[in-house]
Write a structure and sequence with these properties.
The chain has about 180 residues and is mainly beta. It has a single domain, classed as Jelly Rolls (Sandwich). Bound molecules: 6-O-phosphono-alpha-D-mannopyranose and zinc ion. 6-O-phosphono-alpha-D-mannopyranose (M6P) binds next to strand 3 and strand 12.
């Protein structure tokens, strides 16, 4: 396993995400072909939906910067896969650096919440809640996430069933609707 990076104090604004990116330890790209079954319709396999840049902190937390392209697959907005954490105790903090999004959270018992995420705002994701972000704007949606090192990603449940709600474009506006395939 790679040594954790030793970090200097740094500031992160939408203007200087390149500094975060050039210091990242891991880069994940999710294209249409990586997200088969997540949207109601399948995306063009080569379409870039989002990227994640990760920085492993030297102590108890890691960071992830998600940059999501604007766009829709059919009428459904670009979104992350979404995941539960493997660790039952792992919670997470999300901060929106730019763009216009929605975070959907769902507990193991099926309780559901959706909250807007706009520049300058943040959200707390309690342990035990699955989470997905959705870009409902016309520009890149940029999000900084901070999570415990042992959080882990459990994609299986969401890949199989999705969330109880989907976010679609209806008459030029976003609408939160029941997921017909849940
Ligand atoms: C945030 C964090 C990351 C996560 C990323 C993309 O940056 O929660 O841990 O990987 O969003 O989400 P997903 O893993 O569901 O594709
Ligand atoms: Zn998470």
């Amino acid at each position: 396993m790679a040594e954790p990076s030793l970090l200097e104090p740094f500031r992160l604004r939408k203007e200087d995400v390149h500094t975060f990116i050039s210091n990242s330890d891991n880069h994940i790209m999710r294209k249409g072909k990586d997200m088969i079954g997540f949207f109601q319709e399948d995306a063009d396999p080569d379409r870039l939906i989002y990227e994640v840049f990760e920085i492993r902190g030297p102590h108890s937390t890691d960071m992830g910067l998600t940059i999501m392209k604007p766009g829709k697959i059919g009428r459904e907005y670009h979104m992350t896969k979404g995941h539960f954490h493997e660790s039952e105790s792992a919670d997470e903090y999300y901060f929106c650096l730019s763009g216009k999004g929605i975070i959907v959270m769902q507990s193991a018992e099926g309780e559901i919440r959706h909250l807007p995420m706009n520049e300058g705002g943040g959200v707390y994701v309690p342990s035990g809640w699955a989470h997905r972000t959705i870009n409902i704007g016309d520009d890149d949606f940029m999000l900084l996430a901070i999570f415990p090192k042992d959080a882990g990603h459990d994609y299986g449940t969401i890949e199989e069933k999705g969330f109880r709600i989907v976010v679609m474009e209806v008459d030029g506006q976003f609408a939160v609707m029941d997921n017909p395939s849940f």
